[in-house]
Amino acid sequence: MKIHPDAHEGAVNVGGLAVPFHDTLTPDDTRETVVLVHGTGGSAKTHFHTLFPMLAARYRVLAVDLQTPGGELTLGMWSEQVAAVLDERAAAPVHVVGYSLGALVAADLASSCPGRVSSLTLVAGWVRADAQQRLRNRIWRRLFESDQDLLREFATWTTYGHPFLAGRGDADIQALIAARTFPDGIAEQMRLNAVADLSGRLAGIAAPSLVVAGAYDQMVPARQTQLLFGGLPNARYAVVESGHAIPHERPAQLFQLINEFVADPAAAPAGQVREPLFV
Q1: Where does the pLDDT of residue 278 fall: very low under 50, low under 70, confident under 90, or very high at 90 and above?
Q2: CA angle (111 as vertex; 11, 52 as ends), nearest 5
Q3: 130 Cβ neighbours under 8 A, 6+ residues apart
Q4: Could you say which of 9, 44, 167, 244 would form a disulfide bridge with 63 (CB–CB 3.0 to 4.6 Å)?
Q5: HEC per residue, 107-125
C-alpha cells in the first residue's frame, strides 16, 4: 500500500544503491517542499504513515527510504542519499524534518549542503550518545544476537512513553510487540547511533531550526535534546507529551509544530522555548 494516494514512488541510484522516494509533486504544485527523513530500522511508511498525509494536505512532501550499504555506515552516507534524491527531485531549497537518527542525518545534510535547506526540524535527535544511551545500545545488541523475542519487548518498552503504554490494554501492547521487525542493516544503524557525533558541526548550521523533544523519551533524554538546541545558533525548542515515538504517539501535535514553523521559520525568535504541548 502506498504511503499516500497522491505519492509518486521511484528510486535514485546512489553509489550502486537504489534509494526509494515517495513524492506528492504534481506539475502545477508550487507549494513549499517538506522532506521527511526516518530513523533507525524505519522507513517513510513505518515512521511517517500518519504525519505524511497531514503534511501533504498543505505542502509538497518528499520522503526518502534510506538504504544501508555493506560495511560501515556513516552519517555522511545517509545524508548523501538524501542530497542525491534532492538533486533529482527538488531544485529549490526545502524544509527538512528528521526523526531520531534521521535528525542527525538532517543536521549533517544542513551542515554539508547549507544552500539546500530552508529550515530544519529535528525530532528526538541528539548530539553524541552519552553513557546511558550507549548502555541501552549494548543491551539492544546483546538481545539482538541472543533473544529477539525479548528484544521486541525491550524495544517496545523503551520506544514508547510510559503514559502511552499505561493507557493500553495487554492486547494492544502485544500487538505493538508483535509488529516490531528488524530489517536488514538495523545492527549497523544501531552501531551508528552509538558513534555518530554532531558536536563539531552544529555551530556552522545557519538554517532556522526547531528541536522537538518527547517529555518521556527514554532513548533520547531531555538533556540530549537540550544540548542539540543549545548547539544550534538559530534554534527553537518544543516539548510534546510523548516517549521517543513522537510521530506515532503525537502525530497531530508534531504536525502542528512543523506546520507553524515551516509556514514562517523566523516567526519565533532563536532561543525560544515553547510551552510544553501536554493534552
Answers
A1: low
A2: 45
A3: 223, 224
A4: 44
A5: HHHHHHCHHHEEEEEEECC
Q: How far apart are the first and last CA of the chain?
A: 32
* CA 40/CA 38 separation, integer angstroms: 7
- Quick check: 244 and 159 in contact, CB under 8 A? yes
| Chain segment 185-240, per-residue pLDDT in tens | 999 999 999 999 999 999 999 999 999 999 999 999 999 999 999 999 999 999 99
- Predicted model pTM: 0.97
- The topology (CATH level 3) of 8-128+197-263 is Rossmann fold (3.40.50)
Q: What single letter denotes the amino acid at residue 217?
A: D
Domain boundaries, the chain: 8-128+197-263, 131-187
Instruction: Compute CA distances 112 → 101, 143, 149, 160, whole Å.
Output: 17, 35, 39, 32
